[in-house]
């Protein structure tokens, strides 16, 4: 049985090992706690950090009346981004485990789509959920394909 990259990262970071009969369940449970998008280098900002940065900009741009409103606004955005990361990671890992295809871009599409559905549920809007599902799923899939094939958006040209 092959494990996905996310599963291997979380699995190797854990101090305990799973028995062979419970490998799928244990690996999926450990992936549920992974809140980073797996790209291979392990140096991406976590979704909590994206939430904090976004909250800071939002608080500066639209200044709240009280400090309590500022804390609530920052907490709301941070928790939302952390939830998106956890949902993405869990769905991607579970799809990879269920399909026995650890590096398939479809797993990343499913993770992005699940995150988009969460956004739709959070905003109580089916249209937001549908467009976020398609948009985040497509973005995640192309990010996975781009990293695998060495696509670059910026930087000096290769010689």
Automatic annotation (TrEMBL):
Annotated GO biological process: mitochondrial electron transport, NADH to ubiquinone
Residues spanning the signal sequence: none
InterPro entries the UniProt entry points to: NDUFA11
Domain of life: Eukaryota
Keyword annotations from UniProtKB, A to Z: Membrane, Mitochondrion, Mitochondrion inner membrane, Transmembrane, Transmembrane helix
Membrane topology: Multi-pass membrane protein
Compartments where found: Mitochondrion inner membrane
Gene Ontology cellular component terms for the protein in this record: mitochondrial inner membrane; respiratory chain complex I
PANTHER family, per database record: NADH DEHYDROGENASE [UBIQUINONE] 1 ALPHA SUBCOMPLEX SUBUNIT 11 (PTHR21382:SF1), NADH-UBIQUINONE OXIDOREDUCTASE SUBUNIT (PTHR21382)
UniProt record similarity statement: Belongs to the complex I NDUFA11 subunit family.
Protein name, entry field: NADH dehydrogenase [ubiquinone] 1 alpha subcomplex subunit 11
Species this chain originates from: Esox lucius (Northern pike)
